[in-house]
Amino acid sequence: SSLSGSSLLIAATCICFAGILCCCLLHLRHLFCKHKLPPGSLGLPLLGETLQFALLRAPIGTPLPFFSSRMQRYGTVFKTHLLGRPTVVSMDPELTKFLLSNDGKLVQGYYPKVFSRILGPALTLQGASHRALRELANLSVSSSAVQKLHVETVQEHFLTCLESWRHQAAVLDAQHDFKEWVFSYSIKLSLGLAADDPTAELLMRDFFTLSSGYSSVPINLPGTQFNKVLKARQRILATITKLARLRKHKGSKEATDILDVVLKRCDESGERYCGLDVAEWIFFFVVGAFENTFLLIVNVLRFLSENAHVVNQLKRENVALRRTKTHKEKLTWDDYLQKMHFTRSVVRETLRLTNIAPYLMKESTEDILFKGMVIPRGWMVILNFSMVHLSPCYYPNPLEFDPWRWMTSESDKGSNNPDFLIPFGGGLRRCPGSPLATFEVSIFIHYLVTLYKWERVFGKDVQRDDVTCLSFPLMRNGLPLKLQPLD
Ligand code: HEM
């Protein structure tokens, strides 16, 4: 046992030594260069500062301490070492926008192994296949596609969902319901399945298993969380492949969902488009359309439940709009653009404060120079939007939920400049689904405030809905609401 003890000691010393050597080499390359690495610390050998990144918590809608403490110490650009990689973090809007607009030239997407194993090949598309992704998105979720395909169906969907609350218990968990509602719309727009279709229910179960696994340890052994997630992914792909074969067999004249759009572009085998299986394309769109929109709706309601004056203003806008319609008449695209300014400002303000995607991970493909500093080629680059969104330099009283800050006209941007609001990323990979997401959530708000009065129910314990750099902005104990229909 003393032999194995000393071998362990030797191994640990070697690992430490290798780590220290790596750190020295990382620095040495830039010691003689006139541009210096950004300030900051690479932390412990090998581990870097990953533990602080993964564990430091803060309530939703406040700056994450990992970033805010380093911003105070080093400024808006700093170096660190995360998830096994030397890293530069940018909280500087100028640098972040510059790098986003040079995606594919100076930086490229970087995803931890867990993400790429779960989300599959569509996550890292380049060149022609990435252009194909953008084209599919353009046909199915862009602003013109929303006008053509989603104006009526989104309203029918959320009306049916909200009507179902009339027959519910006095107190219900809205977070749970929203997840199912947003998922069922994304499965409808991708695969044309109705919410009560048994296949949609099977897919929902597997997609929910998947979404609980993004922070799992990537060890694929029987019984591990990661193993369950990968199995769910395989079942989902098999189900979508089966649905695609059935659809091909039936044929369809006009494209009404993303499956039709993809099938029309498939190669002769009929199973692949631009190098990817039909199922992988659809899978990626369901995830994109569902996860983030769900988080947005939950957080809209969380903020509304704490800000009665905002709900009152929403009521004024939406009840007035409803009065211009006959019973059950749907809103039009023009109503959305011209008569729902405040509602859209509530969505925008929630996107600013909640930071659903607080940062993006990229990898530098060249040495990048910025204000006398260098981001070396091959480093991970974290583009942090949340620190910009929550900074008093760009937003007065940044921690206040204040949708009125967006009510100024475009020519009078004032100090709440929308140019600094980048919740959907930017450049080549800017989220193509943003028109659909903002439309869905605005429509949901319209029907919610015209149909119900509600109150959030707090349990006995004081709830703190904290998040870390690696977790989603969700309520730990759900979002219990006491409802009262308005008519
Ligand atoms: C609140 C809702 C949403 C947020 C905050 C959001 C955020 C983002 C962000 C930040 C990116 C950029 C990723 C990068 O640069 O690597 C992205 C990409 C993407 N999003 Fe969204 N998203 C939302 C809703 C949607 C919806 C409804 C869809 C519909 C299908 C969608 C589909 C996609 C796709 C396909 C990409 C990949 C784009 C590419 O690689 O070119 N997203 N999203």
UniProtKB/TrEMBL annotation:
Membrane topology field: Single-pass membrane protein
Protein name (record): Cytochrome P450
Residues holding heme: C431
InterPro entries: Cyt_P450 (IPR001128), Cyt_P450_CS (IPR017972), Cyt_P450_E_grp-I (IPR002401), Cyt_P450_sf (IPR036396)
Lineage top rank: taxon: Eukaryota
Similarity remark: Belongs to the cytochrome P450 family.
Cofactor: heme
UniProt GO cellular component terms: membrane
Intracellular or extracellular location(s): Membrane
An MF annotation (GO) of this entry: monooxygenase activity
Keywords for this protein: Heme, Iron, Lipid biosynthesis, Lipid metabolism, Membrane, Metal-binding, Monooxygenase, Oxidoreductase, Signal, Steroid biosynthesis, Transmembrane, Transmembrane helix
Transmembrane segments: 8-28, 281-304
Gene Ontology BP terms: steroid biosynthetic process; sterol metabolic process
Chief localisation class: membrane
A UniProt-annotated Pfam family: p450
